[in-house]
Specification:
By secondary structure, the chain is an all-alpha fold. Helices cover 73% and strands 0% of the residues. The longest helix is centred in the C-terminal third of the chain and has 24 residues, at 159-182. The protein starts with 5 loop residues before the first helix and ends with a helix.
Length: 183
């Protein structure tokens, strides 16, 4: 018997099936955390937003209508949870955490040799050089492989603007990669 699709899991969750929701969380937790970690100032902020996002998804499972992918739906909830937490902390100093751990969690290359670890460090350092919007569009499009229309909707911009932002982000990432490797 095949695993139920996301729409079915969310429908069952909306009817109180915790097991269905747990399967939904297992399916999407890593992607949600990658997105949050790329935008959060600290890993703890990403973890808090992750929990808040899945609590909100549990409560709102019945509101999912299937227009966009369920992954896009939960990623949007997560982005909003992170933004709400930022608004609550207005005035607090923001710190910038390295993205090295995010790269490792994302499994870039899954090459555990010394050479592979060095490659991951270079990629992470290049990602650190990008702005939040650039990292966000790269994670959504390149790592999560969401369709352009869905990414644009999540970011609240037009598809043309998303394509432009993605193109600039790719170019800046390549320039940052070159800078890091030339050091």
């Amino acid at each position: 018997m095949s695993e139920p699709d996301d729409r079915r899991l969310l429908l069952e969750a909306s009817l109180g099936d915790r097991g269905a929701f747990e399967r939904f969380v297992q399916r999407h937790e890593a992607a949600v955390f990658r997105l949050l970690r790329s935008s959060a100032a600290a890993e703890a902020d990403a973890e808090d937003a992750l929990q808040e996002a899945f609590v909100a998804a549990w409560r709102g499972a019945g509101s999912y209508r299937g227009g966009a992918s369920a992954r896009g739906w939960i990623l949007t909830i997560a982005r909003n949870a992170l933004r709400r937490s930022r608004r609550r902390r207005v005035g607090e100093p923001s710190t910038f955490e390295p993205l090295e751990e995010l790269g490792l969690q994302a499994g870039w290359g899954r090459d555990d040799t010394l050479e592979g670890l060095a490659r991951r460090e270079v990629l992470d350092r290049a990602m650190q050089m990008l702005g939040e919007e650039e990292r966000e569009v790269l994670v959504l499009r390149e790592l999560e492989d969401l369709p352009g229309e869905e990414v644009a909707e999540m970011l609240g911009i037009t598809v043309a603007a998303m394509k432009s932002r993605l193109h600039r982000a790719r170019l800046r990432f390549l320039a940052a990669l070159r800078e890091v490797t030339d050091e």
